[in-house]
Amino acid sequence: MSKRVCIITGVGPGTGSALARRFAAGGYRVALLARTESRLRELAAELSGASAYPCDVADEAQVAETLARIASELGPASVLIHNAVGGAFGDFQEIEPAVLQRNFATNAMALLYLARGVAPAMLEAGEGTILVTGNTSAYRGKAKFAGFAPTKAAQRVLAESLARSLGPKGIHVAYLAIDAVIDVPWTRQQFRDRPDDFFAKPSAIADVAFGLAHQDRSTWAFDVVVRPFGEPW
Prior knowledge:
Shape: globular
Strand order of the largest sheet: 3-2-1-4-5-6-9
CATH topology: Rossmann fold
Distance between the termini: 44 Å
Structural class: alpha/beta
Strand content: 15-25%
Number of strands: 9
CATH class: Alpha Beta
CATH superfamily: NAD(P)-binding Rossmann-like Domain
Protein backbone atom coordinates (compact mmCIF):
# COMPACT_ATOMS: atom_id res chain seq x y z
CA MET A 1 0.00 0.00 0.00
CA SER A 2 2.96 2.33 -0.54
CA LYS A 3 1.55 3.76 -3.78
CA ARG A 4 -1.05 6.51 -3.76
CA VAL A 5 -4.60 5.49 -4.65
CA CYS A 6 -6.85 7.07 -7.29
CA ILE A 7 -10.56 6.23 -7.50
CA ILE A 8 -12.22 6.82 -10.88
CA THR A 9 -15.96 6.47 -11.49
CA GLY A 10 -17.59 6.05 -14.88
CA VAL A 11 -14.74 4.07 -16.40
CA GLY A 12 -15.89 3.56 -19.98
CA PRO A 13 -14.09 3.36 -23.33
CA GLY A 14 -13.35 7.10 -23.53
CA THR A 15 -12.37 9.56 -20.82
CA GLY A 16 -12.67 7.09 -17.95
CA SER A 17 -10.24 4.60 -19.45
CA ALA A 18 -7.84 7.39 -20.42
CA LEU A 19 -7.89 8.71 -16.85
CA ALA A 20 -7.16 5.22 -15.54
CA ARG A 21 -4.22 4.79 -17.90
CA ARG A 22 -2.78 8.22 -17.05
CA PHE A 23 -2.93 7.79 -13.30
CA ALA A 24 -1.62 4.22 -13.49
CA ALA A 25 1.28 5.51 -15.58
CA GLY A 26 1.79 8.19 -12.94
CA GLY A 27 2.40 5.55 -10.29
CA TYR A 28 -1.06 5.25 -8.72
CA ARG A 29 -2.99 2.19 -7.69
CA VAL A 30 -6.25 2.79 -9.56
CA ALA A 31 -9.70 1.71 -8.44
CA LEU A 32 -11.96 1.41 -11.49
CA LEU A 33 -15.68 1.97 -10.88
CA ALA A 34 -18.54 1.43 -13.33
CA ARG A 35 -21.66 -0.68 -13.63
CA THR A 36 -20.28 -2.93 -16.40
CA GLU A 37 -18.02 -5.47 -14.71
CA SER A 38 -16.62 -7.13 -17.86
CA ARG A 39 -15.19 -3.88 -19.21
CA LEU A 40 -13.61 -3.09 -15.84
CA ARG A 41 -11.99 -6.51 -15.64
CA GLU A 42 -10.45 -6.12 -19.10
CA LEU A 43 -8.94 -2.74 -18.26
CA ALA A 44 -7.75 -3.88 -14.83
CA ALA A 45 -5.92 -6.78 -16.48
CA GLU A 46 -4.23 -4.33 -18.84
CA LEU A 47 -3.03 -1.85 -16.21
CA SER A 48 -0.51 -2.60 -13.49
CA GLY A 49 -1.92 -1.84 -10.06
CA ALA A 50 -5.52 -1.38 -11.27
CA SER A 51 -8.49 -3.11 -9.65
CA ALA A 52 -12.11 -3.45 -10.80
CA TYR A 53 -14.99 -2.47 -8.53
CA PRO A 54 -18.43 -2.83 -10.15
CA CYS A 55 -20.65 -0.19 -8.58
CA ASP A 56 -23.70 1.93 -9.33
CA VAL A 57 -22.62 5.26 -7.86
CA ALA A 58 -26.24 6.43 -7.71
CA ASP A 59 -26.81 3.85 -4.97
CA GLU A 60 -25.61 5.20 -1.61
CA ALA A 61 -25.25 1.76 -0.04
CA GLN A 62 -23.19 0.44 -2.97
CA VAL A 63 -20.90 3.46 -2.82
CA ALA A 64 -20.30 3.01 0.91
CA GLU A 65 -19.58 -0.71 0.51
CA THR A 66 -17.27 -0.15 -2.47
CA LEU A 67 -15.28 2.63 -0.82
CA ALA A 68 -14.79 0.44 2.25
CA ARG A 69 -13.46 -2.37 0.05
CA ILE A 70 -11.08 -0.03 -1.74
CA ALA A 71 -9.72 1.35 1.54
CA SER A 72 -9.19 -2.18 2.84
CA GLU A 73 -7.64 -3.62 -0.33
CA LEU A 74 -5.73 -0.66 -1.78
CA GLY A 75 -5.53 1.96 0.96
CA PRO A 76 -7.02 5.42 1.48
CA ALA A 77 -7.73 7.48 -1.63
CA SER A 78 -5.43 10.36 -2.47
CA VAL A 79 -7.43 11.27 -5.58
CA LEU A 80 -11.12 10.85 -6.39
CA ILE A 81 -12.35 11.55 -9.93
CA HIS A 82 -16.12 11.52 -10.41
CA ASN A 83 -16.44 10.90 -14.13
CA ALA A 84 -19.68 8.90 -14.17
CA VAL A 85 -22.46 10.74 -15.98
CA GLY A 86 -26.17 10.37 -16.56
CA GLY A 87 -27.59 12.25 -19.52
CA ALA A 88 -30.68 12.63 -21.68
CA PHE A 89 -31.83 14.81 -24.57
CA GLY A 90 -35.21 16.50 -24.81
CA ASP A 91 -36.95 19.67 -23.72
CA PHE A 92 -38.98 19.95 -20.55
CA GLN A 93 -42.13 18.60 -22.22
CA GLU A 94 -40.40 15.65 -23.87
CA ILE A 95 -38.42 14.15 -21.00
CA GLU A 96 -39.94 11.99 -18.31
CA PRO A 97 -39.52 13.43 -14.79
CA ALA A 98 -37.96 10.15 -13.70
CA VAL A 99 -35.13 10.75 -16.18
CA LEU A 100 -34.19 14.00 -14.48
CA GLN A 101 -34.31 12.31 -11.08
CA ARG A 102 -32.11 9.44 -12.27
CA ASN A 103 -29.53 11.79 -13.79
CA PHE A 104 -29.53 13.92 -10.66
CA ALA A 105 -28.74 10.79 -8.64
CA THR A 106 -25.76 9.90 -10.86
CA ASN A 107 -24.37 13.38 -11.37
CA ALA A 108 -25.01 15.20 -8.09
CA MET A 109 -26.03 12.78 -5.34
CA ALA A 110 -23.22 10.37 -6.24
CA LEU A 111 -20.71 13.19 -5.81
CA LEU A 112 -22.08 13.77 -2.32
CA TYR A 113 -21.84 10.06 -1.44
CA LEU A 114 -18.31 9.77 -2.82
CA ALA A 115 -17.00 12.95 -1.21
CA ARG A 116 -18.42 12.02 2.18
CA GLY A 117 -16.75 8.62 1.83
CA VAL A 118 -13.23 9.75 0.94
CA ALA A 119 -12.99 13.07 2.79
CA PRO A 120 -12.32 11.72 6.32
CA ALA A 121 -9.08 9.98 5.29
CA MET A 122 -8.00 12.97 3.20
CA LEU A 123 -8.66 15.30 6.13
CA GLU A 124 -6.63 13.05 8.40
CA ALA A 125 -3.77 13.10 5.88
CA GLY A 126 -4.09 16.86 5.39
CA GLU A 127 -4.12 16.48 1.61
CA GLY A 128 -6.04 15.00 -1.29
CA THR A 129 -7.79 15.86 -4.53
CA ILE A 130 -11.41 15.57 -5.65
CA LEU A 131 -11.95 16.17 -9.37
CA VAL A 132 -15.27 16.23 -11.20
CA THR A 133 -15.52 15.99 -14.97
CA GLY A 134 -18.34 18.00 -16.49
CA ASN A 135 -19.26 20.00 -19.55
CA THR A 136 -20.79 23.31 -20.50
CA SER A 137 -24.25 22.11 -19.45
CA ALA A 138 -23.06 23.02 -15.97
CA TYR A 139 -23.17 26.69 -17.01
CA ARG A 140 -26.16 26.92 -19.35
CA GLY A 141 -29.51 25.26 -19.95
CA LYS A 142 -30.14 24.73 -23.64
CA ALA A 143 -33.69 23.79 -24.66
CA LYS A 144 -32.97 20.13 -25.43
CA PHE A 145 -30.90 19.59 -22.29
CA ALA A 146 -33.71 19.85 -19.72
CA GLY A 147 -33.05 16.31 -18.47
CA PHE A 148 -29.32 16.88 -18.11
CA ALA A 149 -28.17 20.49 -17.64
CA PRO A 150 -29.94 21.05 -14.29
CA THR A 151 -28.13 18.04 -12.84
CA LYS A 152 -24.71 19.16 -14.10
CA ALA A 153 -25.28 22.67 -12.78
CA ALA A 154 -26.16 21.19 -9.39
CA GLN A 155 -23.07 19.00 -9.58
CA ARG A 156 -20.80 21.96 -10.25
CA VAL A 157 -22.29 24.04 -7.45
CA LEU A 158 -21.91 21.11 -5.06
CA ALA A 159 -18.28 20.79 -6.14
CA GLU A 160 -17.80 24.51 -5.47
CA SER A 161 -19.28 24.05 -2.01
CA LEU A 162 -16.87 21.17 -1.40
CA ALA A 163 -13.97 23.31 -2.58
CA ARG A 164 -14.85 26.14 -0.21
CA SER A 165 -15.20 23.71 2.70
CA LEU A 166 -12.23 21.43 2.02
CA GLY A 167 -9.74 23.78 0.35
CA PRO A 168 -8.64 25.53 3.56
CA LYS A 169 -8.07 22.07 5.05
CA GLY A 170 -5.63 21.00 2.34
CA ILE A 171 -7.94 19.17 -0.07
CA HIS A 172 -8.09 20.42 -3.65
CA VAL A 173 -11.48 20.24 -5.37
CA ALA A 174 -11.75 21.15 -9.06
CA TYR A 175 -14.37 21.05 -11.81
CA LEU A 176 -13.05 20.10 -15.26
CA ALA A 177 -15.59 21.03 -17.94
CA ILE A 178 -15.06 19.54 -21.40
CA ASP A 179 -16.52 21.83 -24.06
CA ALA A 180 -16.04 19.37 -26.89
CA VAL A 181 -17.10 16.20 -28.62
CA ILE A 182 -14.90 13.50 -27.13
CA ASP A 183 -13.12 11.20 -29.55
CA VAL A 184 -14.76 7.77 -29.08
CA PRO A 185 -16.08 5.34 -31.69
CA TRP A 186 -19.75 6.37 -31.51
CA THR A 187 -18.98 10.09 -31.84
CA ARG A 188 -16.70 9.36 -34.79
CA GLN A 189 -19.64 7.61 -36.43
CA GLN A 190 -22.07 10.41 -35.60
CA PHE A 191 -19.70 13.15 -36.80
CA ARG A 192 -17.90 11.21 -39.51
CA ASP A 193 -17.65 14.28 -41.75
CA ARG A 194 -15.59 16.19 -39.16
CA PRO A 195 -11.77 16.41 -39.18
CA ASP A 196 -9.59 14.91 -36.46
CA ASP A 197 -9.03 18.24 -34.72
CA PHE A 198 -12.77 18.66 -34.18
CA PHE A 199 -12.59 16.05 -31.40
CA ALA A 200 -11.07 16.22 -27.92
CA LYS A 201 -8.65 13.37 -27.29
CA PRO A 202 -9.39 11.39 -24.11
CA SER A 203 -5.66 11.09 -23.41
CA ALA A 204 -5.27 14.87 -23.58
CA ILE A 205 -8.21 15.33 -21.19
CA ALA A 206 -6.54 12.85 -18.84
CA ASP A 207 -3.29 14.83 -18.97
CA VAL A 208 -5.16 17.95 -17.84
CA ALA A 209 -6.78 16.01 -15.00
CA PHE A 210 -3.43 14.63 -13.88
CA GLY A 211 -1.98 18.12 -13.87
CA LEU A 212 -4.89 19.41 -11.78
CA ALA A 213 -4.33 16.65 -9.25
CA HIS A 214 -0.73 17.77 -8.85
CA GLN A 215 -1.04 21.55 -8.81
CA ASP A 216 0.94 23.47 -6.24
CA ARG A 217 -1.44 24.58 -3.51
CA SER A 218 -0.39 28.19 -4.05
CA THR A 219 -2.14 28.11 -7.46
CA TRP A 220 -5.07 25.72 -7.16
CA ALA A 221 -7.68 25.99 -9.91
CA PHE A 222 -11.37 25.26 -9.47
CA ASP A 223 -13.15 26.01 -12.76
CA VAL A 224 -11.19 24.62 -15.70
CA VAL A 225 -12.70 24.46 -19.19
CA VAL A 226 -10.98 22.66 -22.06
CA ARG A 227 -11.94 22.71 -25.73
CA PRO A 228 -10.36 22.05 -29.14
CA PHE A 229 -8.60 25.09 -30.58
CA GLY A 230 -11.26 25.52 -33.29
CA GLU A 231 -14.31 25.18 -31.02
CA PRO A 232 -16.51 28.33 -31.10
CA TRP A 233 -17.43 29.69 -27.68
